[in-house]
Amino acid sequence: xxxxxxxxxxxxxxxxxxxxxxxxxxxxxxxxxxxxxxxxxxxxxxxxxxxxxxxxxxxxxxxxxxxxxxxxxxxxxxxxxxxxxxxxxxxxxxxxxxxxxxxxxxxxxxxxxxxxxxxxxxxxxxxxxxxxxxxxxxxxxxxxxxxxxxxxxxx
Length: 155
Description:
Elements: H1 2-30, E1 34-35, E2 48-49, E3 52-55, E4 62-65, E5 68-70, H2 84-96, E6 101-105, H3 112-121, E7 129-133, H4 147-154
Parallel strand pairs: 1-2, 5-6, 6-7
Antiparallel strand pairs: 3-4
């Protein structure tokens, strides 16, 4: 019985993930699914605004787009190497589509992805949030999530 539920949940997860990725791809290609306040995408067609969600609570709460943009592929992947201009254009389309949450990690290119994302998204710093994953020591083979290391990484 447990195997059947797992397979069903897995199918639902894969189906939902595929649909979300398709919607994100459409939004980034022409902006005809989501748009910013004007509700008009690149094509000039009226659109629904990007759905929002709340992360955190109290003073730490932040309202972000329902979809986040994973930035790993901008410079750390096994595919075509993007130029800085291509990466900048992709991020600009994501912001124009209403995405306000961008994700990177310390291990994507040994910190180079975080630097690139910070640089390319700087013009939007008052409109977006950047999250990062960390917990590695000074060498990628060791783990360190101590408060001291967290402060070092965030700085």
